[in-house]
Amino acid sequence: EITTKRYGKMYRGVARRMMDLAAFHADIKNNDQAKALYTRAMEIEAHTLGNDHPDLAVIAIALAKAHKNSGNEKSAINFCRQAEQYLRSADQDDYPDLAKHLHALAILYKDMNHVEKTEALYAQALTAAERDYFRQDDFFQYTLSLAELYKVQKRWQKARRYYEQALETADAKFGPKHLEIARRCVDLGETLLELQLFAEAKPLFIRARDIRQTVLGHSHLDTKACADVIQVILEHLDEGNVAKTESKREKTVDEVSTPADAIAPAPGTIEVEKKELSPAPESTSKSAKTADASEVNHKSSAIDAVRRAIDKVAELTKREREDERRVA
Questions:
Q1: How far apart are CA 249 and CA 103, in angstroms?
Q2: What's the CA gap between 166 and 180, in Å, rounded?
Q3: Quick check: 54 and 19 in contact, CB under 8 A?
Q4: Which pTM value belongs to this model?
């Protein structure tokens, strides 16, 4: 009211105060009042800046959220499309907040299960942030968002790529001994377990365990959970080595062992003809079946080991995900 009396109804500062008040109403679930205030703020901003200014995307996204929270997803989608249109003509060099608004829009689409739109907008935000040195902090978050999206979709190779980028960026941003590094090591390690790359996952969990051990202590649940996962990985790697050794041993025995009647008779004799007609030795057939069974058992063991390890990691990361969402 004070701003309106001092500067007039169409002053930009009035629109900003309305947006602040609208956000408050949205927080207390008073969505109708929030929508009315955002709509009025949009009118003021459009009058002041023009009907195609990228700043209008901020209000369009806020209106989309208010409509979604009211249960009107169709209207929410319309405002999302409107926000996309405002941002489409913007350039990162001229509009530094482009990446941030693209990312916010992607999160909104994700909440409404529009996966293709989410992926495209996350990628656009990442590309925009890559070109801006002053947006490197945001770049880390955008990389992580893409990785987590691919993880939910079980597109493990793509998730691996972006988790690796997130870990590299986190190293530069936080330093090598920060708890955030441990979280990113766990993310990447879990993805490698899904790909059954146990040997590559092991050093990541060891690093996460060492960081947590230093920062949180030996007895902390997160430290112990990392240690449990490492134990599962080591057990699996040991099982794999034993299976390979047994398989090699069986092959060696097959090659070395010779049947008692394998002494070659003279050419043209009846024994040669019998030899040619006789079936393959049973020992070879049995050893081949044994090797196949051993490999099947090992693969089954690998799948079980993956499941156990991922369950351990899920327990470890569930609380961290909730904490990160609350912070965001």
A1: 56
A2: 10
A3: no
A4: 0.70
Q: Which two tokens stand for residue 288?
A: 């081949």
CB 158 within 8 A of CB 148: no
Contact indicator for 13, 3 with CB cutoff of 8 Å: yes
Specify whether the CB–CB gap between 298 and 243 falls below 8 A: yes
Other Cβ atoms less than 10 A from the Cβ of 58: the count is 21
Q: What is the DSSP string of 125-141?
A: HHHHHHT-GGGHHHHHH
| Amino acid letter, residue 132 | D
Give the pLDDT score at 278. Answer: 47
Does an H or E element contain 50, and which? none
Cβ pair 208, 228 in contact under 8 A: no
Asked if 87 and 107 count as a contact pair (C-beta separation under 8 A), the reply is no
Query: Comparing C-alpha atoms, which of 259, 302, 317, 303 is closest to residue 283?
Result: 259
What tens digit of pLDDT does each residue of 166-180 get? Answer: 999 999 889 889 999
Beta strands in 116-265 (DSSP E): none
